[in-house]
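Appendix B, record 7
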Amino acid sequence: MTPVALNRSNLGQVRPPVRVPAYDPATLTPGIVHLGLGNFHRAHMARYTHALMERRSDLRDWGIIGAGLLPADERMRDSLAPQDWLYTLVERSATEERVSVIGSIVRVIHAGDSPVELLEAIGQPEIRVVSL
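Structure tokens (predicted):
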């Protein structure tokens, strides 16, 4: 199998067993600003938000704006940007492995670059949750 660069344009080329979003990530709108872009957030909150949006089309206004605060978050932003904020999550148990492309992050900002952009994101009327 030839590797495929992960981004919205190439989602149609991703083949099983890798699961791709059952929704178009480009159509999501933000409802959450999450402070931090770490592994825990991406493996849990972003993954669960993704799962809910896959099951219910009326929840697709709960996309996540990731707000980086630390220098490592700049690197994460720079890594996710060419992937249109998509990333791959691998879940393993003793008996199986599940590989999924997660599409719930709609934008990433870094407060160190633009604190005003973070404040504006938090102040958007459609933002209903600010999490840490």
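Remarks on this record: The chain has a mean pLDDT of 96. Residues 111 and 119 are 9 Å apart (CA to CA).
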